[in-house]
Write a structure and sequence with these properties.
alpha+beta, 25% helix, 7-stranded antiparallel beta sheet, Thiol Ester Dehydrase, Chain A, single chain, globular
Length: 154
C-alpha cells in the first residue's frame, strides 16, 4: 500500500515525538556530522530537519572560504534526518546542489530541510543553507528511497 505524506498536513503528537526520537538516535551515532564536522542537530520533525554548523579553519579551502564539500555535507546530513524522520530507513537516490554565496570563517550556517513530497518509497526534499544574516548560501534537492528496516526498533 502506498503512503503519501504532505508537508501541509499537521502531524500528530505521536509522529512529532517519533521524529524527534529518530533524530536523536541517528545523531548520537553520527560521528561524521557531530564529531568530525561539528554540526548540531537543532530539530527533527516529520519530513523536516534543521542542522547548524559554524565555519571553522578546518572548513576553509585554498580561497579561505568554506569548502563546498562541507556545505554539501551539511545539506546532505540535513536531508538524511528529514527523510528518515518517519522511522523508515531511507537513503539518497540522487541529489543536486547550487552554491549561491560563499561561507566565511565564523559564519553560522543553518540548513533547513523540508519534504516536498513522499509517495510510496520515494521522496523529494529541499534544503536551504543560510548564514547568520539570513543570506542563502546554497540550495540542495535530494531524492530519497526507503529501504527495508527502521531507524529505531518499533
Amino acid at each position: 500500500m502506498s503512503t503519501t505524506h504532505s508537508h501541509l498536513a499537521t502531524p500528530s503528537q505521536a509522529a512529532i515525538d517519533l521524529a524527534k526520537q529518530v533524530g536523536e538516535s541517528m545523531f548520537a551515532v553520527d560521528t561524521a556530522s557531530k564529531d568530525t564536522m561539528g554540526m548540531q542537530l537543532i530539530s527533527c520533525e516529520p519530513g523536516r530537519a534543521v542542522i547548524q554548523m559554524t565555519v571553522k579553519d578546518m572548513h576553509l579551502n585554498g580561497h579561505k572560504i568554506c569548502h563546498g564539500g562541507f556545505i554539501f555535507t551539511l545539506a546532505d546530513s540535513t536531508f538524511a534526518f528529514a527523510c528518515n524522520s518517519y522511522n523508515k530507513v531511507a537513503v539518497a537516490a540522487g541529489c543536486s546542489i547550487e552554491f549561491l554565496k560563499s561561507g566565511q570563517l565564523g559564519d553560522v550556517l543553518t540548513c533547513v530541510g523540508q519534504e516536498q513530497t513522499l509517495s510510496g518509497r520515494h521522496g523529494i526534499y529541499d534544503m536551504k543553507v543560510t548564514n547568520q544574516k539570513g543570506e542563502v548560501i546554497a540550495m540542495f534537492r535530494g531524492k530519497s528511497a526507503q529501504i527495508q528496516g527502521t531507524v529505531i526498533p518499533e
